[in-house]
Amino acid sequence: MSWYQSLGLQFIALLALVLGVLLAAFAAYVHIKRNTYTEKRFSFYAFLACCLLATSSLFVLFNVSPWEPLLRYLGLPVEPASFSDKALGVGFVLGFMALASHWARSWNGQLTQSGAEARLRGEQTSFLSDGLTESFRMIRRAPRDPLFVERRKVLDGIRLASPLIDLPFHEQVLDLAQAAWPELLVERNAWTAETRTWRGTNAALDQPFWIVCCVDQSEWNSLRLREQFHHGAKAARLPRLVLVIDNDAGREQIQTDLISMSPDVEIIKFDDLISRALPLAQYRREIARQFAEQDLPNASFPAKKIFAPASIRTVTLALSGQIRESDVVEQFEAHITTWIEGDQNRQIALLGDYGQGKSTAVLALTYRMLFDEAFARATGGRLPILVRLTGQSPKTSSPEELLSAWGGRFGLNGRALLALHRAGRTLLIFDAFDEMANVSDHADRIDHFSMLWRFACPTGKVLFTGRPNFFLDDEELKNALRVGEASASGAYCQALRIQPFDLDQMKIALRWMEPYRLREFIKAVTAQAELLSLVRRPSFLFQVSRLWHLGLLRIDSDTVYSANVILDFISYSLDRQVDKQVTDISHAQQAARFIPLRRSELDYFVSGCAIAALSGGRSNSLSAVEYRKTIAELIERAPESWFGLTTHDGGSVGLPLSERIPDLEKRIESCAHAVRTHGVLELDPARADHYKFSHKSFAEALAANAIVAGG
Question: Do residue 694 and residue 561 come from a single domain?
Fold first, then answer.
């Protein structure tokens, strides 16, 4: 080969290498900006990058060095490529191909129409074939594949309702006063700004009733109030005067002035008006009962005796758009204390899978804020309002109606609660958003959160809790919870992920055991890595430790891995979800049904998903498309005679599924949402738009049990 032929080949190899690296970098950029680019565009750049990099590697394999001309130009020694150089080049190409293939399979950005239809059919094409097809299209100058916009329009078009505004001090006083004195009648236009006075009537006594509202002594206008008071006294009975003041410095002088006007005078500090308007005795009693007195199921002690403070990690958005957990572990209650003192617009969402202690954590938080004076001061003296959303439908209520329905059980006035919240004096906790009613449709879920976000007024603090797999995908989670919008105007949400127990937390939760028994238990579970990963979930820890303590389970042998133990836990989990529909422990009334399935139907769908997740080499996970396809196939195959009725399956759930939800598409969506939210599935943090079982042992036990039973 002549020197100029060799130089030409070297130049081609160098050009292929440079262009390949540039196109690989641009393919990575397209992946990062996938909400702007389609999967076809990514496949095109990744395909060309692979072709060029492979071409450059082939030249190196045949001893044509792309960098030889550059080395000669720089006067550096030229050596033939070694075996390690060749292996490194091939490895780089194969590594990029594997990465590009992973990005293509987990693509959750813009889709073309053909790409979306392929996903709905459960098909997954290679980025190489897509890239080749796109290359031929461009050569032929054929029109682009149209953009699939339906789902993206739904997500981008979300505009959650505007939050309530903060309530001025005098309006806070009026709403609280009307709760404290039900006989008080005051029109909203009866405010006199000059003297900061509401003028109303005590309907029971037919007596004028004046309320003077002062934040502090600087707002007190004694002279002008005296003139108006005596003018009003000539035309009617002497009004009763009530002064509500927030900062009572100078109270003695104000009291002297008032007594000189009328003998019927009362001065109330704003905090005392709150206590009079909102008697918390029943609410405090109920929280104390739930946390510190009521025995846990199958136990002789309350939650307080086994409670271990929860730990959390903050959740952030990666450049890819996927949700990622931080490396820093924090104590939940310490984080809440800091948050309450911080950014006004930031709200909190506590996320976690079933049995990780979300509801117990916020119940304990509520208990401490009500009964621990030091902690109450650290949290700004706010009133914790723990609203369980189990079976509720927030989208059908106004903020006042929702708080009235909740407060009515404890004799608390909804308008006064809302006034207190808008005054920045509450911590409003919406627990178990994943158990709301009427949530099978995406639009319904967004409507629910649109109403709940109205509570995010500038000085209000709102804490949501629930399972992240309630949402269809990360995109819906970000839209509904407003995660990661700190740069946007208005309220946004910081997501926290509750963490499994570490050994110290496990020891705290098991303090009900005798010390020597506790040491034996910890030694046994730490000796088996698989068991340890299971019992780090608080609910599973309680179940296993209780059975072991009673001598019903050995954990120093292989019996702990038997399907029976895991199936018992799964059965307990599903029973707990269904039982919540009958009577939630925080409700004195019947809760609405929020799972449209019978217990037997829930078993069937969860077991079917387990078999699907373990088949075809999927290893305990299902893509969103595969999951929906599995639910559709299970619905098609199952005769109604398979599903028996229990005492809980009353009302419409007693009807066959086809009659309960006649529309097939609606039936598939309802079942898919119910199983995803109330089974033992969770979002797979390692793969976008994928679901996995909480532990692989769960899927294996369910699948084995279904196969043995003939399922």
Answer: yes
